[in-house]
Fold this sequence. Notes:
It contains three helices and two strands; from the N terminus they run H-H-E-E-H.
Amino acid sequence: MASSNLCALCQSFTQKGGEVDQLRARMASLEGLVREFNKARDTFYKEVAEVVRKTEDNFRVPCSKCGKPMFFSSHDGNWESKEKPILYQAFKDWSHVNCQ
């Protein structure tokens, strides 16, 4: 009798429209949702980055002690008084390759 119960259970899993098919369909649906979410997340990050590029001056240099990046932003409180003048002075002689 245990054998027939096991066979019935196996059939419920493997028959067309059974639990395995239902799980596969659900998994495919979730994979589609994950793809949509990832696409939306990537679009969001690109849009945020574009807004930041348009509204913020920023600069990154390695720390002279540990080498980890230090971030400077026009949103920093001392940007106009300290950071910006130092950066402009450091790069005052730099130019594009094509500029004369």
